[in-house]
Specification:
The chain has 264 residues and is an alpha/beta fold. It contains 10 helices and 12 strands.
Length: 264
Amino acid sequence: MGRFPILMYHRIVSPRCPIPDDDHDEEAPFAVSVEVFVEQIDAVAAAGGRGVSLKAVHERLAGGETVPRGWVGFTFDDGNRSDYEHARELLSERGFGATFFVCGNRVGAEDGLSETMIRGLSADGFHVGVHGMTHRFLTTLSAGDEEQELTASRRLLEEILGAPVNYFAPPGGRYSGRTLATMRRLGYLAVATSDFGFNRDAGARFAYRRIPVRASTSAPRLRAMLAGDVIALAPLYARAGLLRMARGLLGEARYQRLRTLATK
């Protein structure tokens, strides 16, 4: 039984795609420079790996097959303009696939993807998924508001693409048992969570784990991610566990206030 990673990116930064001033403090930890991103995807290729979408992974497992050795899931959250300006071209040059999870209210925004860009990603063979409508954390919403987040954004993307959109990534990684039940009822096929860790190729799942790639991710740490090295990533597993425990003890609102203060 093998392990494989699904990487989670948010933003690729360059002079052409800078972090907006009003989002800088919050976005900077999750922003990878275009130069580093090139190094990272070249490292995947040099190791004999291949970047693929979550859809490719899920369909392979759902068909009763295992994930081929070297497959690395690439996912991008939020729907930033850099998805189109940088990731699209650089991944295409290497024959890599990816899933881009788009937040509905960022469509057409200055730093977001236009409808033309979203259609362009799909036309180039990339997979598009849903990232909610307003980026509100689903665990803070009523059942009705949560369902609205899951349906309005999906409807928008389906109208843009003229095709079903049935993969989801929860904003902020926040979801609950109610969220999963609602998504199943609505016909979603799979969910890319922010739960830290590798995935096993023993069969298809509904909720997949991911490993975040941050501005601070070093080359040795990336190699450990690609190699499925649980021991080398033990500090990250421990950090994820502590954060999950803190959120459970403090509650969402207090936890977020403390996280915001800690990053200032």
